[in-house]
Amino acid sequence: MRRLSRAALAVLVALGATLVSWVPARAVGASPIFSNPLVTVGGTGPIQHVIVIIQSGHSFDNYFGTRTGVDPIPPKTCLPIVVGSRVCVRSYPLNPDEARAGLISTLGVTRKAIDNGKMDRFVSAQPNAAIGTLAMGYLNGGDLPYYWNLASRFTLLDHFFATSQAGALPNRLAAVSGTDGGLVSNTVPAAGINLPTVFDQLAQKHLSWKYYVQNYAASGNSAPPSVMTRTPVLAMPSVTGSAQAHRIVDTSQYFHDIDVSQLPAVSYISSSRADSEQSPQGSAQGEAFVSSVLNALMQSPTWYHTAVLLTYDNSGGWYDHVAPPVVAGKQLGVRVPTMLISPYARAGYVDHNQFQTASIPDFIDKVFGMPALNADAAGTNLLGALNLKQAPIAPTIERRSVVTLVRPSVLGIYVLYLGALLAAGLLLTLAFLRMRRIASASDASVLTSAAPPTGEGERGSSRSDSEDDGEADALLSPDRASPRGSPEPPVPEPTGKGLGSEPPAGGDPDAGGEDEQVGTPIEVSAASDFANPPTAPDHDRSKPRWRRLPKWARSAAAGDLPA
User: Fold this and answer.
1) Using one digit for the tens of pLDDT, what is the confidence trace for 162-177?
2) Domains of the chain by start residue, with CATH
3) Nearest to residue 157, comparing CAs of 298, 60, 57?
């Protein structure tokens, strides 16, 4: 009995000591995350790295509105072309060219499109009415095979809203500071941005971070405005003017850090405009960029201790049917596609909880035991999308071939068009000139053949004037023959009896009259030709020109008829 009492006392003492040692730890501010038995962090737990990938310009309905299990596009949705019009546009699948439509997503346009939660003016809100109807288009799994595959393997968040309605810069700022800072456009303030960020919290906790920027040139505050829009920390003097500036690096450094297993605790990755997916950039090129980032991670041991958030900074002007909620007296922006990718994500799960872009720093705060940067934006804890009890999801490397095409500048396209037009004009001009030359040569040939021969050509003709003159002399005088005449070609004898045939025996060759005519009458044509000889050509009127007569006609003209 005494032994049992002593054993029970020992157990009580040990339990009390454990409680005493635990209470001070809570009193000095130990992270509340340790109260969740599913999460153990601090360098030894399952989640040691958080990666945030931010792309641009698509609404949730535009990418996943037809996917099974999500809050889908209503089947009878039809938005008017103009306010009050009975003509409306239904949602429809986009072709690749339409998916590049340059829709507008400024604060004014987005506010009109939302229409106080009615979500009925996405078409009419577009300044360019010619492409406003394209806002109702959507893509599906055939257009986005990689993203839809990710959604099947990991967790898709179908109620994740942009924090701001004003575009990329305010939302990317909210992704690092928990607030949009009151920005109403993508224009960086002249004085820069001065807000506390999650990077400040990480530095205080001695945790590493890096902001990987595609095609980045370390130029600090002199970076182009387009780069600052995608990377708001470049507009923060507290970062660019401090020892933390070296943490903003090119995305090539990300692949190096993965290879040597030196990925920081928190990483933000920003693509270039060409790979951002913001129309008119193509979605396939953005998929290729994201797949390169995730494939590198999945081939590394770091994969098993990492959570990746893939999200978008604005809707790009594309239609979405879910009205944004009001948080802290302010209506959020349009829903955007967001996925949580991790070996501990709920595979194939669609999380319907409400989140926003400002929930990202809150997620990082929860993972690494830091106080919330913005309590109003905290909302639902993104950790609920993880299941740390499940067996880690094995990586599957995406090996599909993606052809990445760099979209040329607008100026380059116009130069190519101009060059093509000039080339076409030159070809048409050359063809026209060639036709003119051919026509001129043909006209010259006709004129040459029609003109009378001159010079040597006259003497070399098939029948010269001299020959014709000789024959004419022979006709006028049987004793005269042209010295330059040529032999007579044989002429067939006329058939029948008439002029030039043998007269009947005893007859008078000079006798005439119808009663005495014997044989066939003389052909009138020959006599007419002889009686009316043609005049000589105008170029030589000094000599008469006679037509060639049959032999019997020439004999008759010369008086050679038999006696």
Assistant:
1) 999 999 999 999 999 9
2) 22-413 (3.40.720.10), 465-501+543-563 (no CATH)
3) 60
